[in-house]
Amino acid sequence: MGVLVGKKAPSFKAAAVINGEEIIEDFSLDQYKGKNYVILFFYPKDFTFVCPTELHAFQARLEDFKKLGVEVVAVSTDTEQSHWGWLQLSKDHGGIQGVTYPVVADTNKTISANYDVLAGNYYYDENDEMQAEGEMVAYRGLFLIDKEGTVRHQVVNDMPLGRSVDEAMRMVKALQFFEDKGEVCPANWDEGKEGMKDTHEGVADYLSKN
Length: 210
Known about the structure:
Residues 3-177 form the Thioredoxin domain. This is Thioredoxin peroxidase. Pfam families: 1-cysPrx_C (PF10417), AhpC-TSA (PF00578). It comes from Croceimicrobium hydrocarbonivorans. The protein has 210 residues and is α+β, with helices and mostly antiparallel strands. It has two domains: 14-161, Glutaredoxin (3-Layer(aba) Sandwich); 164-210, no CATH class. It has six helices and nine strands; from the N terminus they run E-E-E-H-H-E-H-E-H-E-E-E-E-H-H. It has helices spanning 50-60, 62-67, 80-87, 110-114, 165-181, 200-209, and strands at 14-18, 22-27, 37-42, 70-76, 103-105, 121-124, 130-133, 140-145, 151-157. The strands form two sheets. The protein has a seven-stranded mixed sheet. A two-stranded antiparallel sheet has the order 6-7. Strand 1 (14-18) and strand 2 (22-27) form a beta hairpin. The N and C termini lie far apart (38 Å).
């Protein structure tokens, strides 16, 4: 599937931990359609090292995202019980206690596969037996989904490379600027900067000023 930008975000129902403590069995992004944008991000594993820095970083900006109508949702291939256990562990001990946005359990790995961020592959060997090549966990994929359920931005990092929450926020603001003003966002656009009209004249005018 590769690039999902411009396509409907793959739907799913899965177990998740919400509010840092409650396990539900049928979490879905459908609840946000028509109401909220979604930042859906994948991470490799619970109880690791880079991953908690990312989950805490998104939590630290959660209210800023919510003010823009954005819901944040995390996914990994761990079980909901593993998520719950990690959520009970304090930050001082490598846990993610205090994270309140949903953490989804992609235990059967279909969500990661459908978003094309699953690191490993299954194959059949010469004895017609199924084998796994590579670790069957998710890369650090991030998807910005609009209110209609369409993916508008995606980025996928390799496992050692943590993401920028500031860049995720910038992309939300860029999308909302375009939707509100009807102007496109040039290179290095940030909040408070000018956009430009999507015409030859608009580009020329922008470049003449910058």
